[in-house]
Design a protein that fits this description.
The complex is a heterodimer of chains A (300) and B (213). With 300 residues, chain A is α+β, with helices and mostly antiparallel strands. Chain A has a single domain, classed as Oxidoreductase, molybdopterin-binding domain (Sulfite Oxidase, Chain A, domain 2). Chain A is built from nine helices and twelve strands. Chain B has one domain. Chain B is built from ten helices and no strands. In chain B, helix 2 packs parallel to helix 4, helix 3 packs across helix 9 and helix 6 packs antiparallel against helix 9. The two termini of chain B are 38 Å apart. Chain B has 213 residues and is an all-alpha fold. In chain B, 83% of the residues lie in helices and 0% in strands. The chains are: A alpha+beta (300), B mainly alpha (213). Chains A and B meet through helix 2 of A and helix 3, helix 4 and helix 5 of B. The structure holds protoporphyrin IX containing FE.
Chain lengths: 300, 213
């Protein structure tokens, strides 16, 4: 059952491709603010203007292809994504190697326009297409006692210069608590702007968790594991002081090396100003209850 | 005529001032590209310009450090260009700082906070501050006023400056990209050969002096 989360925007509100390909000066997220005040200080959903397709697909972090922002768009074309199988294992009723089409078969695909906040203090607005992760989990049957979901990115050394140079430890791994994974905002995205997911954005299927820093939204997923223990996550392994397991967007908890209080929305040109970062990236109303009673400074 | 001698002949006729022109033109060219969102500036011009200026500054600082070993090893004497290289480096550091302060952070109080709170910014800022007296004294009048010994001593600040710059770069990256570490290796190698050169020279001079007495 998809559409558990109501997106006020319909596909008709997404800029037609002919326009977005050349559109440059977008100041997203603030138009109409004030007129439509939303509880919790969240910006109104219908005020979000997606970044251009070009912005979203030419400025990426995907270290498998190199550490530069343009490395992914330059190198990702070599990644082989067809055929694509996803191994689902651990505490599930129907483990196995699923062809991507079989995994998604029968699930409702919808469009979600989400804010996307990178831990490096920049952000975009992305019109994703995909399914709710909860639907996939229901399909494979989560067993009692499972508490976490672990994810793994594909490794193709021959096609991935960043992997060959070992810029970080690969495979890239991520994880969510089961209730986070089941939250209706959490999706498995297979496209952007109605186009199949570009390789540099994590084709053919990637996670999208809009209230967490972007690195939690792991790309090009080949394994999903249900477990009862908190799984290791790549950036937490690299530097636990800088990157916690939760990594919820939180303007009051700085990264040790830079401030998280503000962010720059990509696409505003050389003189674009910073905007305040919102608690849980503006999804406080929807997700704050997941963390009730938790110390978010300790559990960053 | 040997190659070094021939190059020194060219050096005598090629003036240093085109370096200033090239630096200013390059600085403005990058700014213009960023302003118009061209090439690598298409999506996030502010951060990319900030990094571009920083990297050029670092390269120019390192280039300045190459002059002496090149002379020692090959006899090619490029000292004539060192002031222009150093001042151009300062120009890019200044531009780097201004992009950081005016376009990126956009608030005086936040610049102060960042300089105090973020070690990699602190280190970059220290390098910038240490560069200021060198830039101010890079003219013939200052050399005369300070005297060559004091002037040279003051300009030994380039060593901590370039180490701080390399550290600044390493400290700000995520993961293990090659570039900052490669720069640091070059920087440390350049310092290492200097320590050895002066050390050996002093040692030999002392030995010669005691042998001949
Ligand atoms: C001698 C002085 C300096 C040198 C040589 C220098 C050099 C560099 C280099 C090489 C980079 C990385 C470029 C890249 O990624 O390609 C960089 C980044 C940076 N520098 Fe500097 N820098 C200096 C001073 C400063 C100062 C004074 C500040 C601010 C007060 C500063 C702030 C920054 C910031 C914020 C970044 C990173 C931007 C980001 O987040 O990506 N730097 N610098």
């Amino acid at each position: 059952m998809a559409y558990r989360w109501k997106n006020d925007l319909t596909p008709a509100d997404v800029t037609p491709k002919s326009l977005f390909l050349n559109r440059r000066q977008l100041i997203a997220g603030t138009a109409g603010l004030g007129a439509i005040a939303v509880a919790g200080g969240a910006r109104a959903q219908d005020a979000l203007v997606p970044n251009s397709f070009e912005d979203i697909t030419t400025y990426n972090n995907f270290y498998e292809f190199g550490t530069g922002k343009t490395d992914p768009v330059q190198n990702a074309s070599a990644m082989v994504i067809d055929p694509w199988t996803v191994t689902i294992d651990g505490m599930v009723d129907n483990p196995g190697e699923y062809a991507l089409a079989d995994l998604l078969d029968g699930l409702e695909t919808e469009e979600r326009i989400y804010r996307f906040r990178c831990v490096e203090a920049w952000s975009m607005v992305v019109p994703w297409n995909g399914v709710e992760l909860a639907d996939i989990l229901d399909k494979v049957g989560v067993q009692d006692g499972a508490q976490y979901v672990a994810f793994e990115t594909v490794v193709q050394p021959e096609n991935m210069p960043g992997v060959r140079r070992n810029v970080i430890d690969f495979p890239y791994v991520e994880g969510l608590r089961l209730d986070e994974a089941r939250h209706p905002l959490t999706m498995m995205a297979t496209g952007i702007y109605g186009e199949p997911m570009p390789k540099q954005n994590g084709a053919p299927m990637r996670l999208v968790v809009p209230w967490k820093y972007g690195f939690k939204s792991i790309k090009s997923i080949v394994r999903i594991t249900l477990t009862d223990t908190q799984p290791p996550t790549t950036w937490n392994n690299i530097n636990a002081r800088e990157y916690g397991f939760y990594s919820n967007v939180n303007p009051t908890v700085d990264h040790p090396r830079w401030s998280q209080a503000t962010e720059r929305l990509i696409g505003g040109g050389l003189f674009s100003s910073r905007q305040d970062t919102l608690m849980f990236n503006g999804y406080e109303e929807e997700v704050a209850s997941l963390y009730e009673g938790m110390d978010l400074t300790a559990n960053y | 005529m040997t190659l070094p001698a021939r190059i020194n002949g060219w050096v005598r006729v090629v003036p240093a001032w085109p370096i200033y022109i090239l630096a200013v033109v390059n600085l403005l060219w990058e700014f213009w590209l960023a302003l118009n969102g061209l090439r690598q500036y298409a999506v996030e011009p502010i951060n990319v310009l900030e990094r571009q200026y920083g990297e050029i500054a670092l390269i120019m600082l390192i280039a300045g450090l190459f002059i002496t070993p090149i002379r020692n090893w090959t006899g090619v004497n490029l000292v004539k260009y060192r002031r222009a290289i150093g001042l151009s480096a300062f120009l890019f550091v200044l531009a780097h700082f201004l992009v950081f302060a005016v376009l990126d952070v956009q608030s005086v109080s936040r610049v102060v906070t960042e300089v105090i709170k973020r070690p990699y910014v602190t280190v970059g800022f220290a390098a910038f501050v240490l560069l200021i007296p060198l830039a101010v004294t890079s003219n013939n009048r200052s050399i005369r006023k300070l005297g060559p010994v004091r002037w040279r001593k003051l300009h030994m600040l380039t060593y901590p400056i370039v180490v701080l710059s390399g550290l600044h770069y390493i400290w700000l990256v995520k993961g293990w990209p090659i570039e900052p570490f490669a720069y640091m290796v070059v920087i440390l190698a350049l310092l290492f050969v200097r320590i050895k050169w002066t050390g050996i020279r002093d040692y030999l001079a002392k030995r010669d002096a005691s042998a001949s007495s």
